[in-house]
Design goal:
transmembrane; mainly alpha; ATPase_V0-cplx_e1/e2_su
């Protein structure tokens, strides 16, 4: 389930939700506020999810056990 395609699938879903927010936002004097708020919320949630997902998918630091004696550690 967790692979590189998840980012693009999530992006496609977020784009669809942004288009839906643009088209179906309530008409009236607050239409721009509705559109901006919904699209900003969708994009912010996606960015937070994507950064967290990618950080776990490809960590910068490899975890190492600290309870192993030095003579048994393979570098």
């Amino acid at each position: 389930m967790a692979n590189g395609w998840s980012i693009f699938i999530g992006l496609a879903i977020i784009i669809a939700m942004c288009v839906a927010a643009w088209v179906f936002s309530p008409k009236g004097e607050n239409q721009v506020l509705w559109r901006s708020s919904l699209i900003l919320a969708f994009v912010s949630c996606y960015l937070m999810w994507a950064i967290t997902f990618l950080a776990q998918l490809h960590p910068l630091i490899e975890p190492r056990r600290s309870d192993i004696r030095k003579e048994f550690v393979h570098h």
